[in-house]
Design goal:
The structure holds 2 protein chains of 2 kinds. Helices cover 39% and strands 1% of the residues of chain A. Chain A is an all-alpha fold. Chain A has a two-stranded antiparallel sheet. Chain A is globular and about 80 Å long. In chain B, 69% of the residues lie in helices and 1% in strands. Chain B has 20 helices and 4 strands. Chain B has a two-stranded antiparallel ribbon with strand order 1-2. In chain B, strands 3-4 form a two-stranded antiparallel sheet. In chain B, a hairpin with a 3-residue loop joins strand 3 and strand 4. The longest helix of chain B has 36 residues. Classes of the chains: A mainly alpha, B mainly alpha. At the A-B interface, helix 1 of A face helix 8, helix 11, helix 12, helix 14 and helix 19 of B.
């Protein structure tokens, strides 16, 4: 009986050790809830807001940055609009696109139409892309979201934005599971408070020191810079500050109107 | 060997191989035969529908036709409904019961017991064969004792399987219906195989003492092989249902199944999971029977009992380690195949919220390796010749702990703002480099090579080589280990840090090959060098400290917990899908639970499993007791 007790206590201690390490020895990251279909008010959207929406999808629901990043899993897209015209003329191009916009759309839904050299599926000699169709079940972008991503890619790679904002939003698959989305915040101060910008930056009555001082940021930086700094903080890092410090998830967390409101607010901070 | 004996041996081997081939063929053909009423089907893969937009899986997902070797290609089979689009209201609830946790726990318990009862007959068969070859009765007794433990565990596996089926029907009726329609033929085959498994297992166990000697023993061994064939087929079929949920085959974007049963079974991840589970099950089964032997050793009253259970524990640990060494490679292959199937799924596994899970996994595998090595080192105490190797053990321990720490090092650190600023970023200046996969691959190869070295020392501890070339053989082995370890290090450092991502991953393959070369060549050299070697003294079985037995318990508990954890991530990478990308989970529990929560469920499951296993051990012990109760029974007159 004594042996039984000893063995039982030993086993329980081992299990408790594993449980304790899993709960207190590592960070408790709460996985994102399943994506829900957002109601988009496209009618009231400016092109800047539509591009920002594309950026939000690009960094969030679209999961594009999982592969299109500096790790080298997939080609970088920072110049995709500029190189699209050349690719349309490339002998390896198998699609039917005639314009940059059509090329981009095709590359999102039929990625094997043109595979960038060195990024094809193993053993296919760059004839088959490992990229999924972004309108498929796993990512499930609807037509409006697809257009927004194309607009973002055109804009962020220095091209002309030729996409037209769709007239109305198309409901996506699985809309039955959609929930009513939380209403957008009304003021930039509320956005700053919600995302705790002051924990790292000097902004409003907050005086964080981890990141750059934003008290007069509007005097030296334009809206494009500020938008990029929020969506992709490591794209340009302010002198004296390390890369990787600012979360890259604000694009996913903010609504397009909130992002634009915050950009305008920061751009207005000049004195 | 006499000519007559040779003829008998050849005939018996032919018979046993024929029986095995027949069993495998019958089991494989069963779903096809049952399905023969349906026309062969088009194995339209998710990829094939990708161009239409709204595909179920990624274009990388190889087609079902490739998985089914093109066997499924012709007209669509009977019409299947699309995957239902559910709402939370479609999931029945029972007050006070969390459906997900209930099904999770039952499924995990079923899997633990299933893994055990599939694994044990594999090494029981081998031990019985070794006993027959060496005519050493101890092997036969040990094999019998192992299978005795399995009998009760088999009943529990079946009970839990029934409970799982009940839980799925109760809480996830639409999912069950969808999968049952696709797999109905294989479910029928599963039921038939289950009966076959029961029949063969009972004949094998209850006929053990009856089928002894001569041809009868060969018949018994054949039954053991049949038992394994049927058991593996059962596992492969169950794996097909699981892997279909991860990598569905022959379905269109709406989830309409348009293939045949074989196409659904032979989905992209089926074989990688099959291989991984077979290897892991053997390691797991070895660890559980090791715990049994340890429990009996600690409870033994007589020296001969201690010696017997010490010997049994040693063999169980040997089995566990032998399967543990290739297990990381099987895991690596599985992960590579997950990436190949869907890069998105692969990145979710390794680079998303589950990234930290692999730090927990490192702790667990570190515990497995350290406990297995510790047991071996303690086991050297059985030999009077071990003093020659004991001084070197501390160096092995240092390398093992060092490798464990590298594996354990996270890439990013969780820090407060001030710590983040002080460190200058989320990565440590020096230790950050140890957090990436090349460092971890190098560390795990070191762990394996040095564990093998521990085993080599243990094996040599009681022997003195008598061959004339022993010194040259030793030198060759030292050179082999040195060159191999340098190669593993160079591959890890150069390709890991001075090339791009593609080569970082690719470099791990030659690392693994180097490790295998070290193990295989060294084993061959050792086998020849110690052929006919002198024993230093008789091995003193039972001369083991009690604390060594706790290493065997640590092995079993860690394995159980690890299997639970990896079950969570295997299922978790489907995220909010019942069937990846085609059948959405709309239940209130569709979110992926965090690591802490998962650890709690796994811990509760492990405690339940260990309690049930101890019950099984206890039953096995009491079934062997035959006390004589005087005065109870009426005396019979002759």
């Amino acid at each position: 009986m004594m042996n039984f007790i000893k063995v039982a206590v030993f086993s329980l201690l081992v299990i408790a050790g594993f449980w304790g390490f899993s709960n207190f020895g590592i960070p408790q990251i709460k996985p994102e809830p399943p994506p829900v279909e957002a109601k988009l008010d496209l009618g009231a959207m400016t092109m800047d807001q539509f591009v920002a929406l594309g950026g939000k999808i690009y960094n969030g629901k679209g999961t594009c940055t999982l592969c299109h990043n500096a790790m080298g899993r997939a080609p970088m897209l920072d110049k995709v609009a500029a190189v699209a015209a050349e690719r349309l003329k490339d002998a390896r191009y198998k699609g039917a696109g005639k314009s940059v916009e059509e090329y981009l759309q095709e590359s999102l839904v039929k990625p094997s139409a043109f595979v960038v050299a060195g990024f094809g599926k193993s053993g296919t000699n760059d004839t088959e892309s490992p990229m999924p169709d972004v309108t498929g079940g796993g990512i499930g972008l609807n037509e409006s979201e697809l257009k927004a991503v194309i607009a973002y890619l055109q804009d962020s790679s220095g091209g002309e934005v030729t996409v037209e904002i769709p007239k109305m939003d198309a409901p996506a698959e699985g809309a039955g599971a959609a929930k009513t989305e939380e209403a957008a915040l009304k003021t930039p101060e509320a956005i700053v408070a919600k995302h705790a910008c002051g924990a790292c930056h000097v902004i409003g009555d907050q005086a964080g020191t981890i990141g750059p001082n934003l008290a007069k940021i509007g005097a030296t930086r334009n809206k494009e810079y500020l938008r990029q700094a929020i969506l992709d903080p490591d794209a340009v890092v302010a002198k004296g500050f390390a890369a990787g410090m600012m979360p890259k998830t604000y694009g996913e967390q903010m609504k397009a109107v909130e992002l634009e409101m915050l950009v305008n607010y920061l751009a207005g901070m000049k004195k | 060997m006499h000519k007559e004996e040779l003829i008998v041996l050849t005939r018996n081997i032919r018979t046993i191989c024929g029986a095995f081939a027949l069993a495998i063929s019958a089991a494989l053909a069963l779903p096809t035969l049952v399905h023969s009423a349906d026309p062969p089907a088009t194995a339209t893969a998710p990829a094939a529908t990708a161009s239409a937009g709204g595909t179920a899986a990624t274009p990388t997902a190889p087609t079902a036709s490739s998985g089914a070797d093109g066997a499924a290609s012709a007209q669509p089979a009977a019409s299947f409904p699309p995957a239902p689009k559910l709402t939370a209201a479609d999931y029945p609830t029972v007050k006070g019961v969390n459906a997900r946790v209930a099904v999770w726990l039952i499924a995990q318990l079923h899997l633990w017991f299933g893994a055990f009862v599939v694994a044990v007959p594999m090494f029981v068969f081998m031990i019985e064969a070794i006993g027959m070859a060496t005519r050493d009765k101890r092997y036969d007794n040990m094999a019998y004792e192992f299978i005795k433990v399995t009998i009760t565990a088999y009943s529990l596996t079946a009970l839990l399987g029934g409970l799982l089926c009940f839980g799925l029907v109760l809480f996830y009726p639409d999912l069950f219906k969808y999968l049952a329609l696709i797999f109905k033929e294989s479910m029928f085959a599963y039921a038939l195989l289950f009966f076959a498994e029961s029949a063969v297992l009972y004949i094998y166990y209850y006929g053990w003492h009856w089928l002894q000697g001569g041809n009868k023993k060969w018949v018994h061994l054949t039954l053991g092989l049949l038992l394994n064939a049927v058991g593996l087929q059962l596992m492969f079929l169950a794996n097909a249902w699981t892997t279909f949920m991860m990598s569905p085959a022959a379905v269109d974007a709406a989830g309409v199944f348009n293939g045949n049963t074989w196409a659904a079974i032979h989905n992209y991840l089926w074989n990688p999971i099959n291989i991984h589970r077979v290897v892991a099950n053997v390691a797991y089964g070895g660890s559980v029977v090791g715990a049994y032997a340890a429990f009996k050793f600690l409870s033994a009253q007589k020296p001969e009992e201690r010696a017997h259970y010490d010997w049994m524990g040693y063999n169980a640990n040997f089995i566990a380690i032998a399967a543990l060494l290739p297990l990381p490679f099987a895991g690596y292959y599985l992960t590579a195949e997950i990436y190949a199937y869907s890069q998105q799924m692969g990145i979710t596994l390794m680079g998303g919220v589950f990234a930290w899970l692999f730090i927990i996994q490192a702790v667990l595998i570190g515990a497995l390796f350290l406990s297995a090595n510790y047991y071996l080192w303690c086991g050297m105490g059985r030999s009077d010749g071990a003093y020659r190797y004991n001084p070197r053990i501390k160096y092995i321990a240092v390398v093992l702990v060092g490798a464990f720490l590298v594996w354990f090092t996270p890439h990013t650190l969780v820090l407060t703002n001030s710590e983040l600023k002080g460190l200058g970023g989320p990565y440590h200046k020096y230790l950050g480099a140890l957090g990436i996969m090349p460092a971890k691959n190098t560390a795990v190869n070191f762990l394996i090579v040095f564990t093998f070295l521990s085993f080599l020392f243990y094996r040599r501890a009681n022997k003195i080589a008598t061959v004339s070339w022993a010194a040259a053989g030793n030198a060759a082995q030292v050179a082999l280990f040195t060159a191999g370890l340098i190669n593993i290090t160079i591959l890890g450092v150069y390709y890991g840090y001075f090339t791009n991502t593609v080569y970082k991953v690719a470099a791990s393959v030659p690392q693994v090959l180097t490790t295998l070369v070290i193990i295989i060549i060294s084993t061959v050299i050792d086998a020849f060098m110690y052929k006919g070697a002198k024993d230093v003294a008789p091995l003193r079985w039972g001369r083991m400290p009690d604390r060594s037995q706790y290493a065997l318990f640590l092995l079993a508990v860690s394995f159980t917990w690890l299997m639970g954890l990896m079950g969570y991530v295997r299922s978790g990478i489907r995220q909010h899908w019942h069937v990846s990308n085609i059948f959405r989970d709309s239940s209130p529990d569709a979110y992926t639970p965090g690591l802490g929560y998962a650890a709690s469920v796994v811990s509760v499951g492990t405690i339940l499993f260990m309690a049930m296993v101890i019950f099984v051990f206890w039953l096995s012990t009491v079934s062997g007791r035959h006390p004589t109760v005087k005065g109870y029974w009426k005396e019979q007159t002759a």
